[in-house]
Amino acid sequence: MSDRELHYGWLMAASLLLAAALSITMLPDWLAVVRPALVLMVVCYWTLMVSGRFRLLASWCVGLIMDVLYGTALGQHALALVICSFIVIKLNEFIRSYRGWQQALLFLPIFITYEFILFWMDGLTNRSVDPLWRWAPVLSSTLLWPPLSFVLRRASRYTYGI
Amino acid sequence: MGRLDSKDISPLFPKGLSIQVKLGLFVLLSLTLMFMDQRFNMLRHVRIALETLSWPVEALAQLPSGLNELAHNLASRSVALKENEALRREHLLLNARLQKLVSLEAENRRIRSLLQSSRKLEERMLIAEIVATSPDPYRHYLKLNKGSTNDVFVGQALVDAHGIMGQITEVYPLTSVALLITDPNHGIPVEIARNGLRTIAHGEGSGGLSLPYLPSNADVRSGDQLVSSGLGGRFPAGYPVGTVTTISHQAGEHFLNISATPAAHMDRGREVLLVWHATDNTPKPATAPANPPAQKPAPTNP
């Protein structure tokens, strides 16, 4: 890791903490159904923007924490997050050449992959889920991607002047 | 022309594992963890450690509701006075009812002693506060602020002022997780208070209960009260569980479609009660072996 990437550390940790807290904070039922996968989005953003050696390991560890927070089988969110960040690493240059809405549309299949893995693992671990509303977070995450990436880019520019 | 740093040139033969291999390792590791966690329940200590690690996240997530409570605490005096008045009236009413209950309890105990039954009526209770609810609307559980340091145990019943709410499924040192009776993976043995008909109530996942095991000729009416039967030893007997709302029967089907609303206020309030009830392993008089080995009721029991 270069110095610059180390410097991002605080911002990364803070944004991940906030995203994790927002994803378990109490919401009314109708809002909880469309709650975007904030942790996935933040992990995707940092995987996209920062190149380092520990990207897969970091997203896997974040996934483990998510499993504990959600009370799911240990490894479920970790698996989904590590596969998504692998896709982001592989398509890094391609995704970075787009901005805003176009980039959000590129992330749509990644969000679908994430929800699909969770859905699949829920089935394997005998948890009943609603098969239709399950996909609502995919749409809300896609819609929220442009503002989120804007805010994070602004935050890193403001904090580190890069 | 600038000089290239050695670290800017990607090596022809990279040291370490390639990213595909790393991904494979992580996937394998995740699947192993899930398998060990779900099938053999071997990762309790890892879970407890991670739970402790993720405490800041939970504290942050509780901040909004904490602020909400603060605002509520600062609500105007007149509201507080009105609430106080209402509570005072309710207290009086309940006290009057309690007096009657005390004599009934004494009578009950006398009659039970005549029958040589050893079932205890008093139960120890502890107030626990809800720390978090399920972020997933299809899974119904609560996280409570009492754990193994308060003698909370797995399988313990959880009630509120109106009826049974659920049972404890995971216990950590300072917190515990309770599965609610409305969760689709939960079933509770109940009986209909009017005629003692025994059955099992499952959670529906949408906030209601369903009674899938009653045959089409069973004596059920809408409005019937469901109380816990105490069979299976998990829940104390006689607590209200719910009220039957709709009964439908499809021609040709063997069983009725019955749905019920839970008696407990699942989505209101911040406090719940944990119950220690006398289970089957309390010492019994000499006549104990005569007791039938009543466990899980048969699914259909008209």
Describe this protein's structure.
The complex is a heterodimer of chains A (162) and B (302). Chain A is mainly α and 162 residues long. Chain A has eight helices and no strands. In chain A, α5 runs antiparallel to α7 and α7 crosses α8. In chain B, 29% of the residues lie in helices and 23% in strands. Chain B is globular, with a radius of gyration of 26 Å. Chain B has four helices and twelve strands. In chain B, the strands form two sheets. Chain B has a six-stranded antiparallel β-barrel with strand order 1-2-5-4-3-12. Chain B has a six-stranded antiparallel beta barrel with strand order 6-7-8-11-10-9. With 302 residues, chain B is α+β, with helices and mostly antiparallel strands. In chain B, β6 and β7 form a beta hairpin.
Q: Which strand order does the major sheet of chain B show?
A: 1-2-5-4-3-12
- Provide mean pLDDT of chain A, rounded: 86
By DSSP (H or I, 4+ residues per run), the number of helices of chain B equals 4
Oligomeric grouping of the chains: heterodimer
* Low-confidence runs of at least 5 consecutive residues of chain A: none
The helical percent of chain A reads over 70%
Mind summarizing the main beta sheet of chain B? Answer: 6 strands, antiparallel, barrel
- First-residue to last-residue Cα separation of chain B: 92 Å
Total beta-strand segments of chain B: 12
Report the portion of residues of chain B in β strands. Answer: 15-25%
The string of secondary-structure elements of chain A, in order, is HHHHHHHH
Radius of gyration of chain A: 15 Å
Ends of chain A: how far apart? Answer: 17 Å
Radius of gyration of chain B: 26 Å
Q: Secondary-structure blueprint of this entry?
A:
The complex is a heterodimer of chains A (162) and B (302).
Chain A: H1 3-24, H2 29-33, H3 38-49, H4 55-70, H5 76-90, H6 92-96, H7 100-124, H8 136-160
Helix pairs in contact in A: 1-3, 1-8, 3-5, 3-8, 4-5, 5-7, 7-8
Chain B: H1 19-39, H2 44-53, H3 55-73, H4 77-114, E1 124-133, E2 141-144, E3 157-159, E4 164-171, E5 176-180, E6 187-192, E7 198-203, E8 209-210, E9 225-228, E10 240-248, E11 257-262, E12 271-276
Antiparallel strand pairs in B: 1-2, 1-12, 2-5, 3-4, 3-12, 4-5, 6-7, 6-9, 7-8, 8-11, 9-10, 10-11
